[in-house]
Amino acid sequence: MYSMKIKVFLVGAVILLALPVYLWAFDVAGTWIAQAPSQQGNVDIILKFNVDGEKLTGTLNNPIAEIVDIKDGKVKGDDVSFYVEREFGGNKIKIVWKGKASGDEIKFVRTVEMEGSSGGPGGGFPPTEIIAKRAK
Q1: Higher-confidence residue: 80 or 16?
Q2: Is the Cβ–Cβ distance between 50 and 75 less than 8 Å?
Q3: Is the confidence at residue 33, as pLDDT, over 90?
Q4: How many domains is the chain built from?
Q5: Long-range contacts made by residues 21-29, C-beta under 8 angstroms, separation at least 24?
Q6: For the ranges 2-16, 18-32, 100-114, which has the lowest average pLDDT?
Q7: I need a surface site. Which of 22, 53, 83, 89 has the fewest CB within 10 A?
Q8: Can you give the CATH number for the domain in which 53 is found?
Q9: Is 6 within a domain?
Q10: Whole-angstrom distance, CA of residue 36 vs CA of residue 63
Q11: Residue 109: HSE in the Cβ half-sphere, 13 Å Cα cutoff
Q12: Residue 117, pLDDT score
């Protein structure tokens, strides 16, 4: 009798522990500050995130450009991704941010996609690693 109850309890515990981590979304809502390299030296980029399920919305504020809305934002487990669009010299630029959240940090890799660029998919810009820290 007790043996059966213990087995049922153990099976239930194993199932709960075995649920995939991606069912749990890391809480990235709020303000984050990322220091990123620029032609003028390092700049603080302010990321403001809102989360609804796996959907991520918000803004990116780069002090050397205008504030832009993030697009196609997603949070799956500890994975965070979005992109922003800019225009420089008549060229559309898509800047893609993909990262992993851990504690009060998100480690991003930022890549650039330029329309009509002869510099390859990154338009001559290599991927950049950027760490965002939760604003206190």
Answers
A1: 80
A2: no
A3: yes
A4: 1
A5: 21/77, 21/78, 22/76, 22/77, 23/77, 24/77, 25/51, 25/53, 25/54, 25/75, 25/76, 25/77, 26/75, 26/77, 26/78, 26/80, 26/101, 27/51, 28/56, 28/75, 28/80, 28/101, 28/106
A6: 2-16
A7: 89
A8: 2.40.128
A9: no
A10: 11
A11: 6
A12: 55
